Amino acid sequence: MKSEFLQRVIGHIDLDYFYAQVEEVENPALKERPVIVCVFSGRTEDRGVVSTANYVARGFGVRSGMPIVNAKKLLQGKDPAVIRMNHEKYEVVSTRIMDALSEKVDVLEPTGIDEAFFDVTASTSGDFERARTAAMGIKEAILSTEHLTASVGLGRSKAVAKLGSDLAKPGGLKVVLPEQTKDFLGPLAVEKLYGVGPKGASLLKGAHISTIGQLAGADPQELEKLFGKKLSVYLLEASKGNDSDPVRGDLEPTQFSRIVTLKEDTTDVEEILSQLETGVGHVHEKLSSSGKSFRTLTAIGILTDLSTKTKSKTYETPVSDEESIRGGLAELFDEMSAVSDKQFRRVGVRVSGFTDARDQKSLSDFLQA
Ligand code: DGT
Ligand code: CA
Ligand code: CA
């Protein structure tokens, strides 16, 4: 059967309290305690904001974006774990999960470090019960391989799927059958709709629209005055779960990477480079087949204590040859092993900063802009 005749089955997956959960996996004793992952920004010790917090900390009122000092006040006497954000570490986990996910769905469109839309219309023949089973399988796979929980929504459009994953948080699965779409969306607050945002919500409030159901019944011309043609058409469609933007699996990649597990833990750079040779080949192959050059090369090391270390170098002019990757990695791993006495367990290579990334604007980009 041709997929254009099938009921679309769209999913959205979002990892729960992502940065903080990754920290818990690395150090399970943290699970019982409030955990805040922080971006330290200033000269004074506590200057900066909470990037995210686990649900224990959220139970005491801590939120993303909150100044660290405020979070510490809320957590006084609660034995909080205050952890410095390590973006590279989360990026490595994210890449692994996205790679695995892309094998399990028909089309995957990552929209952030911890979330993605997916389409399973063809593989489920448009059947939501089969999609439910597939989604449970995906959640279980992430749990068993990465020990991370995720929330998933299934619906007939991106906006419905995204709302589903929001409401399933943390750790749940929300399936909105096509015939339930109107009843599901109607009562929800309009700011929850994908693409509305706080600014859009306040414009809508001014027009006395506070639920998605009210938005669905709004006058198209009034909406166009507030949001312009493109966005107002989208909002009206999305409020009915009829937004038609496809899941885009063809977005330009922004990086290629490969991580390998060493046969034995080691600090020997030559041994590391020799075992990483297949990874270098893989990354080089990806570069050649896509006709890309890169400027930034990153060496990734996961040590025996499971902590992740990375070191990067940026080339003045873009390169794409295998020798530059090898030479650069040798330097980077030399530098890394010089400052650490721990052994490496897994090692990886990543290239990023591509030069020819085409300007391919999707509706998602438009909404996120
Ligand atoms: P949740 O609600 O269980 O999905 O929790 P998170 O923490 O996964 O929240 P999400 O999906 O909105 O964001 C994914 C990651 O992005 C999160 O782990 C940390 C980072 N992040 C989110 N909000 C902020 C923020 O306001 N400031 C900073 N610096 N980082 C943020
Ligand atoms: Ca999340
Ligand atoms: Ca997210």
What topology does this entry show?
Elements: E1 10-15, H1 18-26, E2 35-40, E3 48-53, H2 55-59, H3 68-74, E4 81-84, H4 87-104, E5 107-112, E6 115-119, H5 121-124, H6 128-146, E7 150-155, H7 158-168, E8 173-175, H8 181-185, H9 197-206, H10 212-216, H11 220-239, E9 255-266, H12 269-275, H13 277-290, E10 294-303, E11 308-319, H14 322-338, E12 344-352, H15 363-368
Parallel strand pairs: 2-4, 7-8
Antiparallel strand pairs: 1-6, 1-7, 2-3, 5-6, 9-12, 10-11, 10-12
Helix pairs in contact: 4-6, 12-14
What summary fits the major beta sheet? 5 strands, mixed
What ligands are attached or bound here?
Answer: 2'-deoxyguanosine-5'-triphosphate, calcium ion
Instruction: Please estimate the helix content.
Output: 40-55%
How far do the termini sit from each other?
A: 37 Å
What is the chain-wise order of helices and strands? Answer: EHEEHHEHEEHHEHEHHHHEHHEEHEH
* Structural domain count: 3
List the uncertain runs. Answer: none
Which strand-content bin applies to the residues? 15-25%
CATH topology of the largest domain: Alpha-Beta Plaits
Major sheet: arrangement of strands? 5-6-1-7-8
Counting H and I runs of at least 4 residues, what is the number of helices?
Answer: 15
Query: CATH superfamily of the largest domain, please?
Result: Reverse transcriptase/Diguanylate cyclase domain
CATH architecture of the largest domain, by name, is 2-Layer Sandwich
Radius of gyration: 23 Å
| pLDDT averaged over residues | 93
CATH class of the largest domain: Alpha Beta
Q: What's the β-strand tally?
A: 12
Q: What would you call the structural class?
A: alpha+beta
- Label the overall shape: globular
